[in-house]
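BUG: 3D viewer hangs when loading the predicted structure for this chain

Environment: internal workstation, default settings.
Expected: structure renders.
Actual: progress bar stalls at 90%.

Input used:
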Amino acid sequence: MKNLKTSVIKIAIVAVVLSTTLDSCKKDEVITPNSTTEIKDSVSINTLKEFMSKTGGIPVESIGYNETTEQFTWRGKDQISKTDLVYAYKQSQLK
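Structure tokens produced before the viewer hung:
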């Protein structure tokens, strides 16, 4: 009977320690708001077209932008999303 009580107490202690540990991990997680809109709006379309022209070696006049799909186009085909191009542009500015 004493061994049973000891086992139950050990299991209870392990359960409390695990739940405390798991709960504290959740508190440490940092959830940041999605700032994709801020990032996308921080660079003008013309700047992005110029950047795409330089990196792709294509004339800036041949690059289009579809506002509905937020895709940059070349020769009538979607090439890259605004989000991805802004990210690439921002990364190039860090160097």
